[in-house]
From TrEMBL:
Pfam families: FAD_binding_3, Oxidored_FMN. InterPro entries: Aldolase_TIM, FAD-bd, FAD/NAD-bd_sf, OxRdtase_FMN_N, YqjM-like. One of its GO terms (molecular function) is NADPH dehydrogenase activity. Residues 108-313 form the FAD-binding domain. CDD domains: OYE_YqiM_FMN. This is Bifunctional salicylyl-CoA 5-hydroxylase/oxidoreductase.
């Protein structure tokens, strides 16, 4: 077989080494546009896990790399002279030039032919090659020639960065943050060989412009950065190598192969340098391509298909983590106000791959500092942030875990019953800080289904009061009611009877505009002034009824495309009067409703507003819109924003996953400066602690995890060994058994995690 590799980066070279070593009779040629001694950038980073994989694949490459790398176990986060070291991370730095030199040596030892100063733009010269590996970097000329066939998409991220070096010695991978009058600049730094370290400076585009940097003016860039980071550089100079300011290109390809061409390395996919995975990603994919080729040595197309099948998901996971990590740096100016340890913790957990428990197992002295600072700030004394108290107006919650509003669709004529009684009271006994009821309609025609609860008559008030009385008399849990109106999404079947399908004899639907939710449902009536006043009166009456029913809080439903939300989104509001068009106009009616609720509910009791922070659809609500909406509700007296997303239109395309809605809560909380509730595939106490400690939300709401586990909180309290005083007398004999068995299981799990940690590759 004849293989041609275009591009002499680490990925292409490593694939060539592995393949030639396994198949010495195959012909492998590598064509590189630069000279052997050329290298752009300074150092590359590998983890213990990655080095361990190199050891298994090619001992010679591993030993060569290991003989030249600088190893560190710590990560340091420093901000304006204050710093903290976090142990147990296991990374190494290696000079990119040295790495390439070592891989060149291994290629020559195995018989791979290297061709330098070969700028390949015509593939016809390789028509006799069985495989052409396009490993020619981010700006891949081969990929560009066939960009339609590969389905290439390149998005330039907003931050600016510049790659430099220095003679400053470093003992650990260090993030140096410096606060300037124009925003924060961060230096991602690490030593990669004795006497040399990499310094990647990054800041927002706004900060970059305000500091008047120029893309290619290296002298000016060095002068300004040397002054800003003079304490960190400690008299050492910055070294340039085509050190021009750039914006990171996020590269994806729908297809990784075309005919006999296959993509590898940055030509295929890029991952932001903040998680140190660019070279790792290229070399991991080199291993994946090699494995696929060895499994299909006589079938190139099967090789490519297996390569893509086995590697696409890991690559996309790394890209996602890198994008989330980058997003933190894009918004780091938000966190300037944070106390130091919270700021450092947010930096360490930014990609969602690392959590509080991960860090605690690595370096408990660090997480103890983070928790101590949190407890001091919030005047608490707890082993876990989730079990700190939280106050909204006159309401104090015993912990920060909330039951999200989950429709039960089991009411009759809006009347809750025994099902609802057991549903809410069992979870209150389960120890939640706050329960938010299912959407409760302010009018019969505001229900989503015929099974939805209501609070628009005296009988309904009485049944709700049975529930709130039990909760207050037997538990420390607080209970809030979500008041809402279904709008254009009303009069549908219960979920188990059909999804968004209208019922027979549906009532007239109301909405901001006459736009049906889908082609099965009726076109709603565009609300008139009289309709609006009628609905305002219904919400005001519901607020009074909620007070009578004994609720501790009201949450206003202004999310998921229901009536109030239909006014907020430009996708569902095309009105031309004073309630449509500009955001101020679109917010007018929801704000009138909010004011009516606030005026008719006890002043010492809080009100939450639940909003959708994105429609997950083109031309939907913008980030700027969401921040304005949250700020206006705050001005009007809202105490907390429950940040949800989507369900505005049927053709949405949400990006789901672990803790997927948390970034939106982070945005609202830290840009609009108002407490938030977050939700969205949050499944364990570690995630909850991480979210709260990093300042991304004040309360964490769970939905599905509580459906079949009403005692989630009790188990979490046992896991964290929280002293509890609110277990009903009837159940107290169960405490000792739960706590002893849970702590035993936790210790066993932690031992397993430590045992599975990659072996250190330190010399």
């Amino acid at each position: 077989m004849k293989i041609t590799v275009i591009g002499g980066g680490p990925g292409g070279l490593y694939f060539s080494i592995l393949t030639k070593k396994a198949m010495p009779h195959w012909e492998i040629n590598v064509y590189e546009r630069n000279k052997p001694e050329d290298s752009f950038g300074f150092g590359v980073v590998f983890s213990d896990e990655t080095l361990g994989e190199f050891l298994k694949r090619d001992m010679q490459s591993y030993e060569l790399i290991r003989s030249k790398f600088a190893y560190w176990d710590d990560i340091i986060v420093a901000r304006d002279g204050q710093e903290v070291s976090i142990a147990g991370n296991g990374f190494c730095g290696c000079s990119r030039k040295t790495l390439l030199k070592l891989l060149h040596q291994r290629c020559e030892e195995e018989g791979v032919k290297l061709h330098f100063e070969q700028n390949v733009d015509d593939l016809s010269q390789f028509k006799d090659s069985d495989i052409i590996v396009a490993a020619d970097g981010i700006g891949s000329g081969i990929r560009t020639q066939f960009q339609n066939e590969f389905g290439t998409n390149i998005q330039l991220k907003s931050n600016r960065f510049v790659w430099m070096g220095s003679t400053k010695p470093l003992d650990a991978f260090t993030y140096f943050f410096r606060t300037t009058p124009y925003g924060i600049i961060v230096a991602h730094t690490y030593q990669y060989e004795e006497g040399m370290s990499t310094w990647i400076f990054e800041c927002t585009d706004e900060t970059w412009k305000n500091l008047q940097f120029e893309v290619e003016n290296e002298a000016d860039t060095v002068a300004k950065l040397s002054e800003i980071f003079k304490d960190e550089l400690d008299g050492h100079s910055l070294i340039t190598n085509k050190s021009h300011w750039r914006q990171f290109p996020h590269v994806t390809n729908k297809n990784w192969h075309h005919n006999n061409i296959v993509l590898l390395g940055d030509a295929k996919a890029t991952a932001h340098f903040s998680i140190g995975s660019g070279t790792k990603l290229a070399m991991d994919c080199a291993i994946g391509l090699f494995d696929a080729l060895m499994a299909n040595p006589d079938n190139v197309q099967n090789t490519f298909q297996q390569y893509e099948k086995t590697r696409r998901n890991p690559v996309e996971m790394i890209q996602y983590a890198a994008s989330v990590s980058l997003e933190w740096f894009e918004n780091m100016n938000r966190y300037e106000k944070y106390p130091f340890y919270q700021f450092s913790f947010g930096c360490m957990t930014r990609s969602k791959k690392v959590t509080y428990e991960n860090l605690r197992l690595r370096d408990q002295s660090y997480t103890d500092k983070v928790l101590q600072e949190f407890n001091q700030k919030h005047n608490n004394n707890t082993n876990a942030a989730a079990f700190s108290t939280f106050k909204l107006r006159g309401l104090e919650l015993s912990n920060r875990i909330v039951m999200s509003s989950m429709g039960q669709y089991s009411a009759n004529n809006g009347l809750v019953n025994n099902w609802h009684f057991q549903h809410y009271t069992s979870r209150a006994i389960g120890g939640l800080g706050l329960i938010v009821t299912e959407m409760t309609a302010v009018d019969a025609n505001g229900r989503i289904t015929l099974g939805c609860a209501g609070i628009y008559n005296e009988e309904q008030i009485a049944e709700w009061k049975k529930i709130t009385d039990f909760v207050h008399e037997n538990t420390s849990t607080k209970i809030g009611i979500q008041l809402g109106h279904s709008g254009r999404k009303g009069a549908v079947k219960k979920p188990w009877e059909g999804t968004n399908e209208p019922i027979d004899n549906a009532w007239e639907l109301l909405s901001a505009s006459a736009i049906a939710f889908n082609d099965k449902m009726a076109v709603p009536k565009e609300m008139t002034a009289d309709d609006m006043q009628n609905v305002i009166n219904q919400f005001a009456n519901a607020a009074k009824n909620s007070e009578k029913a004994g609720f501790d809080m009201i949450e206003l439903q202004a999310h998921h495309g229901f009536l109030l939300a239909s006014f907020l989104s430009p996708l569902t509001n095309n009105r031309t009067d004073e309630f449509g068009g500009s955001l101020e106009n679109r917010l007018r009616f929801p704000m009138q409703v909010f004011n009516a609720v606030r005026e008719n509910f006890a002043s010492e009791k809080p009100i939450s507003v639940r909003i959708s922070a994105t429609d997950w659809a083109e031309n939907g609500i913008s980030q700027e819109d969401v921040l304005f909406i949250a700020s206006e509700f705050k001005k009007a007296g809202a105490d907390i924003i429950n940040v949800s997303t989507g369900n505005t239109v049927e053709n949405q395309n949400p990006k789901t996953g672990r803790m997927w809605q948390v970034p939106f809560s982070d945005m609202v909380r830290n840009s609009a400066d108002i407490p938030t509730i977050t939700a969205g595939t949050i499944t364990d106490i570690d995630q909850i602690n991480t979210i709260i400690l990093s300042g991304k939300a004040d309360l964490v709401a769970l939905g599905k995890p509580l459906l079949l586990d009403p005692y989630f909180v009790r188990k979490a309290q046992a896991y964290e060994q929280i002293t509890i005083t609110d277990i009903p007398y009837q159940y107290q004999k169960g405490i000792e058994n739960l706590y002893s068995s849970t702590i035993s299981e936790r210790k066993q799990t932690e031992r397993m995690k430590k045992a599975l940690k990659p072996k250190s590759n330190k010399k």
